Amino acid sequence: MDEKLQIRKVLKGDTSAFGYFVDTYQDMAITIAYRVCGNKQDAEDIVQNAFVKAFHNLETFRSDSKFSTWFYRIVYNTAITETRGVGRNTEFEDYKMADTAYYSDMDTMTQIEENERNEMINKTLDMMPKDESVLLTLYYLEDNPVKDIAVITNLTEANVKVKLHRARKRFAEIASQQMRI
């Protein structure tokens, strides 16, 4: 669906057209917020607040970037603002697997291996510093280019590349430690 058309509809008063953006970006937005705050309930609240902010500021969206980049920056900034200096509970939850996907073509062993791999990835990401976890999530799970991640996180492209490199190394170290346990 053409996002520019949906934006025009919302701006002309068809508020129900905004549902497209909620349906399209909610899961990754929750993942990003969760990576920052470490708590499912807080992540959901942050995403709800981010959608409200995006809706009220939609007229400020410039089409020179993707809507997802603009929106994920709102999510990221909202999460940083709402978690700054506040101690939070952390609970492990894989939002991609929260609805327990139906595996019609996979046999039981493949399902188990896939679940174990996802659990290990999420556990490793949870053990990492929040900023590194967010960068890896944006780059690998959402397939955002470095340029877009720089916009979302308000870092330079060079800084994103350096932090991604460090995050990959830390991920590998933590994952290999987890495999030994």
Automatic annotation (TrEMBL):
Keywords: DNA-binding, Sigma factor, Transcription, Transcription regulation. GO terms for biological process: DNA-templated transcription initiation. The keyword Nucleotidyltransferase does not apply. Pfam families: Sigma70_r2, Sigma70_r4_2. InterPro entries: RNA_pol_sigma-70-like, RNA_pol_sigma-70_dom, RNA_pol_sigma70_ECF_CS, RNA_pol_sigma70_r2, RNA_pol_sigma70_r4_t2, RNA_pol_sigma_r2, RNA_pol_sigma_r3/r4-like, WH-like_DNA-bd_sf. The keyword Transcription regulation applies. Residues 22-85 form the RNA polymerase sigma-70 region domain. Residues 120-170 form the RNA polymerase sigma factor 70 region 4 type domain. One of its GO terms (molecular function) is DNA binding. Belongs to the sigma-70 factor family. ECF subfamily. This is RNA polymerase sigma factor. It comes from Dysgonomonas hofstadii. The lineage of its organism: Bacteria, Pseudomonadati, Bacteroidota, Bacteroidia, Bacteroidales.
